[in-house]
Design a protein that fits this description.
This protein is α+β, with helices and mostly antiparallel strands. Helix 1 links the parallel strand 1 and strand 2. The relative contact order is 0.20.
Length: 78
C-alpha cells in the first residue's frame, strides 16, 4: 500500500479538487491530510470527503481554539 501525505494550511479552495482527482485513481493507497492549523474551512472540506479527524498529541493546543489554553510547546519524551 502507498501512503499519500498532503500537507494543508488554509486550503479550503484547492483541497476539494485535489482530493477529487486523487480519489479517482485506482490502486491500494491511503490518503493522509495533515492540517497545519488552518483558520479557514479546510477541516470542513475534509469532512465532506468522510475523512476522520485525529488530533496529534504533538500539536500544540493553540491550533484548537475550543481548548481555550495558552500557547505551549509540545513536550517530547524518550
Amino acid at each position: 500500500m502507498i501512503s499519500i501525505v498532503i500537507p494543508a494550511y488554509n486550503e479550503e479552495k484547492a483541497l476539494p479538487n485535489t482530493l477529487r482527482d486523487l480519489l479517482r485513481q485506482s490502486g491500494n493507497y491511503e490518503v493522509i491530510v495533515v492540517d497545519g492549523g488552518s483558520t479557514d474551512r479546510t477541516r470542513a472540506a475534509l469532512a465532506e470527503f468522510s475523512f476522520s479527524e485525529y488530533p496529534s498529541p504533538l500539536t500544540p493546543p493553540f491550533y484548537y481554539p475550543q481548548l481555550k489554553r495558552r500557547r505551549t510547546s509540545p513536550v517530547l519524551e524518550d
